[in-house]
Amino acid sequence: MHMRIGLFAIMAILAATASADYVELKNGTRIDGRILAENDDGLEIEVGANEAGTIRRVLIIHSSEIATWAADAEGRIARKEEATVTRLTGTDYVKRLLAEAEKKINDRKFDEGIGEFQAAAEIATRNLDDLEGGEKVEALKIRAHALRLAQAGLEGKLDLIESQTEGVEEDLKDRMDKWEDDWDQLRDEKRDAERDTRRRKVELGSRRETNDFVEREEELKIRKARLDREIATLGPRLQEYEVMRVQTEAQIEMVKERVDQAEEEAKDAERVYRRR
Question: Where are the domains of the chain?
Answer without folding.
Answer: 168-243
